[in-house]
Design goal:
Elements (H helix, E strand, L loop, with lengths): L9 E6 L6 H12 L3 E6 L24 H10 L11 H16 L3 E3 L15 H14 L1 H4 L6 E3 L7 H10 L24 H13 L4 H4 L4
Parallel strand pairs: 1-2, 3-4
Helix pairs in contact: 6-7
Amino acid sequence: MARADGFECFALSFRYGQRHGVELAAARRVAAAFGARHAIVDIDLTMFGGSALTDASIAVPHHGAEADTVLADMVLADEIPVTYVPARNTIFLSFALAWAETLGAGDIFIGVSAIDYSGYPDCRPEYIAAYERMANLATKAAVSGERTVRLHTPLVSLSKAETIARGLALGVDYGMTHSCYDPDPAGAPCGTCDSCVLRRRGFSEVGVPDPLMTRQWA
């Protein structure tokens, strides 16, 4: 979406001790396909724990037929799931802000959604607005009047189905992508974690098959 709007793209990913490290290979594929310069930052969030994505002693939740009801109830109750990684988007955006300033860039894109999501507090519009205000107080370029920092959230008000449809219209090959929180050793998605459930529902609503579900995994 950023490229379609005429931006030169620099993509930033993080190896932070997540159990679904296969997402980094997917990030490389997507960045290469769309001609973005791609960097991977190594940080260790396992030292803090507190999340099923970084602490092997905490199980990733899996769902059966009741999945849609469970996820909807969690969001309505503002219940934060155990897959929430403490302060993750704040940490990620801080690295992005630093890189943007060195690049001479004022536009940062992040793919958060406040519609079909797991209830994470750092995916909400009020959080993004607060971070943008902070960024314009925290950088030399902003306080000197050289450039304003703008945080773009093009997916924030889109459902998963709308996001998938928009990607298809832009030529995204979803066979390159990855969503699962708890893939098997070959990288195959589990199909039952929060992220897989949201992805499955999105493809179902669009009415197209998810290429990851038909792929043969070694």
